[in-house]
Amino acid sequence: MIMTNSQNSKPKYDLEERTFQFAKDVRLFVKTLPKSVANFEDQKQLIKASGSVGANYREANESLSKKDFVMRIKISRKESKESEYFLRLINETNDLPNKDEASSLIQEAIELKKIFSSIIEKSK
């Protein structure tokens, strides 16, 4: 989601909203998956990881120190990587009619991971 900054006309990317949308989209995707023991276990892990991406980012924005901020961003990056892993696992072990949606979610997890890596680098 792109928001405009009132101080100037440059677009501002709302990462809190983007991470919320990612977690929401994952939950909607999971509802479409075939019922199996493996999918059930992978879904639980995926739901936890995808929700944790945004939750930790929000906590980072309220951090009390730079060290705490960087630690929370690192957790968001780790959870993005975990989300990507479980999305790939689900995508590659099921014959999904909505493989495009799975691929899109995998791509979003990768992009979020890159964004958090960039934030970490700039915070050094």
Characterise the protein shown here:
It is a single chain. With 124 residues, the chain is mainly alpha-helical. It has one domain (14-122): 23S rRNA-intervening sequence (de novo design (two linked rop proteins)). The protein has helices at 15-30, 37-61, 66-92, 99-122, and strands at residues 2-4, 11-13. Strands 1-2 form a two-stranded antiparallel sheet. A hairpin with a 6-residue loop joins strand 1 (2-4) and strand 2. Helix 1 (15-30) runs antiparallel to helix 2, helix 1 runs antiparallel to helix 4 and helix 2 runs antiparallel to helix 3. The longest helix is centred in the middle third of the chain and has 27 residues, at 66-92. It is elongated. The relative contact order is 0.14. The model is unreliable at 1-11 (pLDDT under 50).
Topology:
Layout: E1 2-4, E2 11-13, H1 15-30, H2 37-61, H3 66-92, H4 99-122
Antiparallel strand pairs: 1-2
Helix pairs in contact: 1-2, 1-4, 2-3, 3-4
